[in-house]
User: Fold this.
Amino acid sequence: MIDLGISKLAMIGAVALIVIGPEKLPRVARTVGTLIGKAQRYVSDVKAEVSRSMELDELKKMKDSVESAAKDVSQSMQTSATDFEKTWAEATQVGSESGSDYQITLPEPVPEYQHPKKNWRLKQGATPNWFKARTGVRTKALSGAARVARYRPTKFN
Assistant:
């Protein structure tokens, strides 16, 4: 690359001051600065576009590999399913051909769920409210904000 040191920049500035003149030099410097900024932005945009296209190519390759793996898995599942169906059909044919020889015993049926039939409302209402108030049992739930407002210490002035 071009090696521009402070001495070379000072020399370029002195020559520009002599050639362009002190009145037009600030305007020319601003124009050169904006052109250099635009060039840097253009170069950074090109770099970003190239990196995006490279990432897109990598993503496409990854997508293709995932799709091929999914196809392989689905094919293996299909082959194993067909193998299982064949063995199942063979096993059921053997059982149906000599059905009088084999006695199939089924396990005992699972008992059905029966609700305990407890009345929780009756249980909650068994204790009177005056007893709950005297013993300090909470009968209503407080939100966090209500609890803070209720138990906030008083401020001393």
